[in-house]
Amino acid sequence: MPEDTASRGKVYVVILNWNGWRDTLECLESVFRSTYRDFQVVVCDNASQDGSLERIKAWAQGQQPATVATHPSIRPLTTPPIPKPMRVAEYCRAAAEQGGDEGADSARLVLIQTGANLGFAGGNNVGLRFALARGNFEYAWLLNNDTVVAGDALSGLVRRLDQRPRAGLCSPTLLYYHAPERVQVRGGTAYDRWFATMRHLGQGESVEEAVDAEAIERSISYPAGASVLVRRSFLERVGLLSESYFLYYEELDWVTRAGGLFEIAYSPDSTVYHKEGSSIASAGADSAFHTADFYAHRNRLRYTRHFFPAGLPTTLLRTMAAVLARLWRGQPRRAWGILRLMMEGDTYRFPDRDPGRIKHAPRTG
Fold first, then answer.
1. pLDDT tens for residues 280-318?
2. Looking at residue 361, what DSSP letter applies?
3. How far apart are CA 29 and CA 18, in angstroms?
4. What is the distance between the alpha carbons of residues 85 and 61, in angstroms, rounded to a whole number?
5. What integer best gives the mean pLDDT of the chain?
6. Residue 167 belongs to what H/E stretch?
7. Mean pLDDT of the 115-120 span
8. CA dist 319 → 231, 262, 295, 298, 316 (Å)
9. pLDDT, tens digit, 9 for 90 and up, residues 16-26
10. Is the Cβ–Cβ distance between 264 and 255 less than 8 Å?
11. Under a CB-based contact definition with an 8 Å cutoff, are residues 32 and 153 in contact?
């Protein structure tokens, strides 16, 4: 594959894995086909119990095949297998957050054992701290492990940020992995602060539909977290992802904390196929529903109370409607779980120390 002349500055590709090595291997097969050449992949494993790190290391040595998609538009993105073996560096969390050692310089793939299930933000932050400690990059690409990327996906993201120097974050067009002719989201989500409702831009549209990238950018409240390219300067000025959410609302918190210092960009030239929900599903179907419910509703209330308290009454009404809906569907356990969240004071408070967040973006000037 020819080298992309748009390559401008090193990119750390940070992929979080938790009991999902099959998805991760398919993702890696696509990422290592990227036309953008100056990148290094960092897989952060949140203490998986399914032997993920051993499987990923075996794949890097050419001893473990990756899943092959059956859909004809996705299959070529991961086949035939990329050449192996490849050089791998492996670190524990403490060593990684200090930047590793000289071995990281020549490794195509860096594996980090975070030591615990730190959640979405905590796991990704370990990879971001590794990149910041090394200091030799311009961008970090946070990429869900349940994705497959087009060969020019990374190049398209970098190119759009080059075109938008005031933007600090950029997301692609996400397509449904199992229905790649349909859009999951174009660039990001529009958020209504009063009722804490979300609308994925372009959802359900045909991939063939013409788009106005600038119009979409004006509508984005926060980028698509499954694939977001972030400038190093954004990380240095705004901080890392907030670890107080564990799951959901991290991207909205990130943008809110930026306080308008950075814009959000959308690259229609970048395409990523997303399975959606694979990480949550690895906990088991019933557990997954309860996990999603808990964090979605807790974090909706937590974010609103902290950043937009005027919207808390209407957000509580919206949350109460969710309780009634679950009762109507014969889900009393889930309804009671949401109701308890509404009544518990801890729901609305950030912990005293959140190692990923800062309250306000630094002052300019």
1. 554 444 454 567 888 999 999 999 999 999 999 999 999
2. P
3. 18
4. 4
5. 91
6. strand 167-176
7. 95
8. 35, 31, 13, 10, 5
9. 999 999 999 99
10. yes
11. no
The two tokens of residue 299 are: 């974090």
DSSP H or E segment with residue 179: strand 179-186
As a whole number of angstroms, the distance between CA 216 and CA 187 comes to 7
Helices marked H in 7-65: 21-31, 52-60
pLDDT band at 160 (very low <50, low <70, confident <90, very high): very high
Could you tell me the two tokens for 346? 């801890």
DSSP state of 270: E
Q: What 3-state class would DSSP assign to 34? A: coil
State the amino acid at position 155 in one-letter form.
S
DSSP 8-state symbol, 18: S
Query: Per-residue confidence at 361, pLDDT binned at 50, 70, 90?
Result: very low
**Cis peptide bond upstream of 80, omega within 30:** yes
**Confidence bin at 339 (pLDDT 50/70/90):** confident
Count of CB atoms situated within 10 Å of the CB of 52: 24
**Residue partners of 157: CB distance under 8 A and separation at least 6:** 139, 141, 170, 171, 172, 229, 267, 270
Angle between helices 332-343 and 312-328 (to 10 degrees): 160
Residue 106's alpha-carbon distances to 24, 39, 109, 128, in angstroms, are: 22, 12, 9, 19
Q: Please name the residues in contact with 192: beta carbons below 8 A apart, sequence gap of 6 or more.
A: 198, 199
**pLDDT of res. 94:** 97
